[in-house]
């Protein structure tokens, strides 16, 4: 089997080793002198010999685990760390790993001495009894591989068996994948149908032990994407580490990586319910380390194009109600007094499509209910709110642990709350209040859900609620701040950071399972229960549920908390939204201008304006912050407030256009390589993205810019500036960039020729017609409105609207048309308030210009 290093060496050019003779006698005499001969001999010993040894030690083909040659001569980017953090040289040597005295780091041999060898069939036995971190190694594990269309599921799990027949799923002929096994050692080389290697675990460590699992493999030797980065770019000893264990620091990152090799895309999904540390090396080796054992799954999905990979990997994308694509506001903070929450709400006079009054409302109502508070003012406020917008209740899982709280009493009676090790109800802290936590795996949890929903009906009225936002549902526990270094054999600062301020790892579920084994599923289970109840029991239509914590392939929209305000985080906002969108997170809402305490309205005025403009092009527009607030009326200057107000008004026009794209189960926001991957320039683009297939949006990533370079794909040949129609032809001597003048309030957008973008203001349709005049000037588009796909076909003189409903009240507000002839481009505007539904047919034609250009 080909090793990692060998693969890399095969790509390198052979060094020119032909001798170069010099004919000059003086040079020859010099080279033949005894002194120079001695120096050259020393150089050979000092330089050439180690290089030769390195070549034979590392590039050699290893296969037999019992007659292996091991080497510590490993290039920096291929070194897989070994042992616990801070391990010293003596201990590193004792656990049979390599210690580099220059860097002070301990790493595995090449190949690693920690592996499993075939015992019988798909059962493998360990080479060691203890792991490098001192934990007892599982004696036997089972490996299975199952192909399902364009997916291949690899499963490693503990096994009590000592022998078994080879799994039928491994023996069966696979159509899309080919697995090459080592003769004894459990190492895999997985190829696609073109025989390109897409997964290689040769020579890596495989450790399955108590509270510590480790497995590493190499993906493409070209490009990787994911883990909150649009593209993963590393060099030398750089690494990227993400911990998948949801808490306030990071509760959105999904364990998904895309890879590119030989112009083909494929994806990797790691399925694991407990704390999982994922580290990517510059060599594209991925190291998985888990604090729980028993089972780990890796799912490979083939493309080969990004669009095909999206379709094969995501498969079932949800669709929120159309109104949810509007603007959302939800103020937050530490206040829980109901009177003060209503006062805070009253300060914001801006009108949104959806409002929550305050993120802490549910906790506040529990407190008021516990002490017999007066809810008259709240109900008056709520009546006023629902008369003009949607009310979305923030619904964290926390139950206020007061004996006179009827919700808490019911949860205790049903015995559905998490327990500590002594068997008592576990009490944590949330908003400085004592709280308990429902166990969503409990057999009686649906009975408690009925109690909860009845409580909501009594306090609020379910008919007034248009949706839930399940905030802080990883779940948040402000009391748990432990240092976990002594609790686990392996612990890093990143792991410790992710495992605090949430439920303690060792509280128990009703099945007596430690919480950390199922932690990453907590929010998903809460969502699933509420979704099923609202759709099946209450039969609620157009009901919206978003969650702060979800798993890959879950359908709910997602919100993000604790996002500090900075230009660097604005860039993260863009990258996170782009990659999330093409991996199934079709509607992720990151707080506009951030929601952390670093915000300064004078210092961040330009940034906040740019953030609003970017958010206006995203599917989930959500403003959520503590004081200082970031709603339009709280911004620093009237200029910024007016610019933001204009941006929000313009975004509202896009709502049905966005919904049209999402209704086809396609990603709305796309990194530039999604549709234009054949051009390498698209992979490094951080500041621009596509909306569907026809619109490109660009954002400056710093303040004070008056010009901006924008990449416009040559594939579409002609692009028009969306709002004014200026024409751009990017393909000039392989330069696909255009430079444009900008001001800070610009929404920078371009539309491809041949497209019609339909923006709506209620029943008024406004069309942007970007004509393709390569042969005959034509353009096409469609709009999903009132459960019908309306299509548009334009020429350079008229536009025809097809598939109109039998009875409708649509009018053509205005039509902007952009085109070109043999000499130049042109743009114009038509506005006549034409009736698009004259009756007597499902189509109508509007002539917008009487003489062609």
Question: How do the helices and strands line up, and which of them pair or pack?
Answer:
Blueprint (H helix, E strand, L loop, with lengths): L3 H8 L13 H7 L2 H25 L30 H6 L3 E3 L4 E3 L8 E5 L2 E4 L13 E9 L2 E8 L9 H4 L5 E5 L6 E5 L4 E4 L5 E4 L2 E7 L4 E4 L2 E4 L6 E6 L11 E6 L2 E8 L4 E6 L3 E6 L4 E8 L3 H9 L12 E3 L8 H10 L6 E2 L5 H10 L5 H11 L3 E5 L4 E2 L5 H9 L13 E3 L2 E4 L8 H15 L7 E4 L22 H6 L23 H16 L6 E4 L10 E2 L7 H16 L5 E2 L15 H11 L5 E3 L14 H16 L1 H9 L5 E3 L1 H4 L11 E4 L3 E4 L8 E5 L7 E3 L5 E2 L8 E5 L6 E5 L2 E7 L2 E7 L8 E7 L2 E7 L3 E5 L8 E10 L4 E6 L3 E2 L8 E4 L6
Parallel strand pairs: 20-21, 20-30, 21-22, 22-26, 26-27, 28-29, 40-44
Antiparallel strand pairs: 1-2, 3-4, 4-5, 5-6, 6-19, 7-8, 8-9, 10-11, 11-18, 12-13, 12-15, 14-17, 15-16, 16-19, 17-18, 23-25, 24-25, 31-32, 32-33, 33-38, 34-37, 35-36, 35-38, 39-40, 41-42, 42-43, 43-47, 44-45, 44-46
Helix pairs in contact: 10-11, 15-16
Keywords: Disulfide bond, Glycosidase, Hydrolase, Membrane, Transmembrane, Transmembrane helix
Pfam families: Glyco_hydro_31_2nd, Glyco_hydro_31_3rd, Trefoil
Family: Belongs to the glycosyl hydrolase 31 family.
């Amino acid at each position: 089997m080909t090793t990692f290093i060998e693969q890399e060496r095969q790509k390198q050019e052979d060094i020119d080793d032909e001798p170069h003779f010099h004919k000059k006698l003086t040079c020859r005499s010099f080279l033949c002198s005894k002194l120079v001969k001695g120096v050259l001999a020393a150089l050979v010993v000092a330089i050439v010999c180690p290089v030769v040894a390195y070549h034979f030690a590392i590039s050699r083909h290893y296969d037999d685990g019992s007659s292996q040659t091991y080497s510590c001569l490993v290039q920096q980017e291929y070194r897989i760390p070994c042992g616990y953090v801070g391990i010293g040289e003596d201990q590193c040597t004792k656990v049979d790993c390599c210690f580099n005295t220059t860097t002070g780091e301990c790493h595995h041999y090449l190949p690693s001495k920690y592996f499993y060898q075939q015992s019988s069939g798909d059962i493998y036995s360990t080479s060691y009894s203890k792991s490098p971190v001192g934990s007892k190694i599982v004696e036997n594990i089972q490996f299975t591989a199952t192909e399902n269309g364009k997916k291949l599921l690899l499963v490693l799990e503990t096994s009590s068996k000592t022998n078994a027949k080879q799994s039928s799923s491994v023996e069966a002929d696979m159509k899309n994948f080919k697995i090459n096994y080592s003769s004894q050692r459990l190492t895999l080389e997985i190829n696609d149908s073109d025989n390109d290697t897409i997964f290689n675990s040769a020579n890596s460590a495989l450790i399955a032990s108590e509270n510590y699992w480790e497995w590493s493999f190499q993906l493409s030797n070209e490009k990787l994407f994911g883990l909150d980065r649009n593209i993963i770019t590393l060099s030398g000893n750089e690494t990227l580490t993400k911990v998948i264990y949801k808490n306030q620091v990071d509760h959105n990152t999904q364990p998904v990586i895309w890879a590119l090799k030989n112009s083909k895309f494929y994806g990797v999904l790691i399925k694991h319910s407990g704390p999982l540390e994922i580290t990517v090396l510059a060599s594209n080796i991925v190291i998985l380390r888990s604090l729980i054992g028993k089972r780990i799954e890796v799912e490979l999905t083939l493309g080969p194009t990004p669009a095909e990979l999206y379709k094969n990997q995501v498969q079932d994308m949800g669709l929120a109600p159309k109104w949810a694509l509007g603007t959302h506001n939800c103020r937050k903070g530490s206040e829980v007094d109901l009177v003060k929450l209503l006062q805070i709400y009253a300060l914001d006079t801006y009108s949104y499509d959806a409002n929550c009054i305050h993120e802490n409302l549910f906790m506040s109502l529990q407190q008021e209910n516990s002490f017999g508070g007066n809810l008259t003012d709240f109900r008056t406020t709520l009546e006023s709110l629902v008369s003009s917008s949607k009310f979305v209740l923030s619904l964290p899982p926390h139950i206020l642990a007061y004996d006179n709280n009827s919700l808490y009493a019911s949860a205790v009676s049903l015995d559905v709350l998490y327990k500590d090790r002594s068997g008592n109800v576990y009490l944590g802290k949330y908003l400085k209040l004592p709280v308990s936590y429902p166990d969503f795996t409990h057999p009686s949890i649906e009975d408690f859900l009925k109690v909860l929903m009845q409580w909501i009906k009594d306090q609020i009225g379910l008919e007034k609620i248009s949706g839930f936002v399940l905030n802080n549902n990883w779940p948040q526990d402000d009391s748990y701040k432990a240092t976990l270094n002594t609790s686990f054999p392996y612990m890093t600062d990143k792991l410790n950071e992710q495992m605090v301020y949430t439920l303690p790892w060792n509280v128990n579920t009703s099945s007596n399972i430690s919480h950390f084994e199922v932690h990453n599923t907590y929010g998903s289970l809460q969502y699933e229960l509420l979704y099923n109840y609202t759709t099946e029991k209450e039969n609620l239509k157009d009901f919206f549920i978003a969650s702060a914590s979800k798993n890959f392939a879950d359908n709910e929209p997602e919100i993000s908390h604790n996002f500090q305000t900075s230009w660097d985080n604005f860039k993260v906002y863009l990258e996170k939204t782009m990659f999330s969108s093409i991996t199934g997170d079709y509607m992720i809402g990151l707080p506009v201008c951030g929601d952390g305490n670093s915000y300064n309205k004078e210092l961040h005025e330009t940034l906040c304006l740019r953030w609003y403009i970017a958010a206006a092009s995203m599917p989930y527009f959500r403003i959520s912050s503590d004081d200082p607030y970031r709603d339009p009326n709280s911004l620093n200057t009237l200029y910024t407030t007016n610019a933001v107000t204009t941006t929000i008004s313009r975004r509202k026009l896009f709502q049905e256009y966005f919904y049209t794209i999402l209704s086809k189960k396609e990603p709305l926001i796309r990194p530039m390589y999604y549709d234009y991957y054949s051009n390498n320039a698209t992979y490094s683009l951080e500041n621009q993205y596509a909306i569907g297939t026809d619109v490109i949006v660009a954002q400056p990533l710093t303040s004070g810019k008056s010009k901006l370079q924008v990449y416009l794909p040559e594939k579409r040949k002609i692009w028009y500036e969306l709002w004014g129609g200026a024409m751009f032809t990017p393909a000039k001597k392989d330069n696909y960039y255009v430079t444009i003048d900008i001001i800070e309030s610009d929404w920078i957008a371009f539309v491809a020729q041949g497209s019609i973008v339909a923006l709506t203001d209620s029943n008024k349709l406004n069309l942007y017609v970007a004509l393709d005049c390569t042969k005959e000037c034509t353009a096409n588009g469609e709009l999903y409105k009132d459960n019908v796909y309306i299509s548009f076909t334009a020429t350079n003189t008229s536009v025809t609207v097809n598939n109109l409903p039998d009875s409708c009240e649509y009018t053509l507000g205005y039509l902007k048309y952009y085109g070109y002839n043999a000499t130049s481009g042109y743009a114009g505007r038509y506005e006549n308030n034409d009736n698009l539904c004259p009756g007597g047919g499902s189509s109508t034609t509007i002539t917008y210009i009487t003489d062609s250009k």
